[in-house]
Amino acid sequence: MSGIELGNIRYNPVTGAYEARVDIDRKGRTYRYPVSVPGSLMMEESVVRRGLTQQAQQMASREGGLLSIR
Q1: Of residues 61, 60, 26, 21, the one with CA closest to residue 37
Q2: Using CA atoms, how far apart are residues 57 and 6, in angstroms rounded to an integer?
Q3: Per-residue pLDDT reduced to its tens digit, 22-70
């Protein structure tokens, strides 16, 4: 995977999770993954970003994903 880009990260108090979209560029195509990581509002940003990125990478390792043409 050549490029990973996180969208805006939001905290959802109803679910108690951070939510974002993560775009992963593979061979010139961008795949978009909606991800969420449970945690408290005081969770460190680096931990949140790592969790969101890891979840997207796991999703990307399986076939599928949402293709986004930019």
Answers
A1: 21
A2: 12
A3: 999 988 889 999 999 999 999 999 999 999 999 999 988 876 555 555 5
HSE of 52, CA atoms in CB hemisphere, 13 A: 29
- Going by C-beta distance under 8 Å and a sequence separation of 6 or more, which residues neighbour residue 28? none
Rounded Cα distance between 4 and 52, Å, is 11
Task: Supply 13's token pair.
Answer: 């108090």
Tell me, rounded to whole angstroms, the distance of Cα 35 from its chain centroid. 5
Please answer whether residues 21 and 57 qualify as being in contact, where contact means their C-beta atoms are separated by less than 8 angstroms. Answer: no
